[in-house]
Design brief:
Shape: globular
Largest sheet: 4 strands, antiparallel
Number of strands: 8
Structural class: alpha+beta
Number of helices: 4
Radius of gyration: 17 Å
Strand content: 15-25%
Distance between the termini: 16 Å
Helix content: 10-25%
Order of helices and strands: HHEEHEHEEEEE
Pfam family, one: Trefoil
Keywords: Disulfide bond
Protein name: P-type domain-containing protein
């Protein structure tokens, strides 16, 4: 997979990572930072997806996604969010390993191009969000996505499975962080599909 082929999963990972902006499943809101791209990626009632990739030499690679029915076009968006953005599932106990303690599954299955399917097929754990840590996937300490479960490859009773965790209680253009490969640009319209765009340099 070259850098262009990696642009779409990279952009999707960037959009999904907005879950870490304290997304609240009960309210559909975060901590004031962007969460709309994350919501669009996982919105349950969206049934169609169109993606575009534009490579601009000397500028970057741009990824756009259009969803339908458009989640952001609903006037009662926040009321619908709890039924459409379902609680993230937690890892199996044998895969619940902090970033500093993770060991690569093998020399071939490494970030940023390893896929969850490849990792799980090797009997290892996959996680690129580091939900309980102040670590981002684009940081050097956040690059171990495919890692050995406790006990070694295939020793987990269900490495590819996850357990459900309950939803937490209620409580323009952006630039890429240093070291990031993607910058998300929300351009949601009240009259049309959500259109997250990402520039990958």
């Amino acid at each position: 997979m070259d850098k262009y082929e990696g642009a779409i999963p990279g952009a999707t990972r960037s959009w999904y990572s907005e879950i870490k902006n304290d997304y609240n499943y009960a309210t559909g809101k975060g901590n004031g930072q962007a969460v709309g791209h994350f919501m669009a990626v996982v919105w349950k009632s969206e049934t169609k997806l169109g993606c575009g990739l534009n490579i601009k030499e000397g500028d970057g690679t741009y990824v756009t996604a259009h969803y339908a029915p458009a989640s952001h076009a609903n006037s009662n968006y926040y009321e619908l969010a709890p039924k459409n953005v379902l609680a993230r599932k937690g890892p199996e106990p044998s895969c619940n390993i902090r970033s500093a303690d993770r060991k690569d599954c093998n020399d071939k299955l490494k970030a940023p191009f390893v896929t969850p399917d490849e990792c799980l097929a090797a009997g290892c754990c996959y996680d690129d969000m580091f939900m309980d840590e102040p670590v981002q996937f684009f940081e050097s300490k956040g690059r171990t996505w495919c890692f050995l479960p406790e006990g070694g490859p295939g020793k987990s009773p269900n490495v590819s499975g996850v357990k459900t965790t309950p939803a937490p209680p209620s409580s323009s253009t952006t630039t890429a962080p240093a070291g990031s490969t993607a910058a998300a640009t929300p351009t949601a319209s009240s009259a049309g599909p959500t259109t997250p765009t990402s520039s990958v340099t």
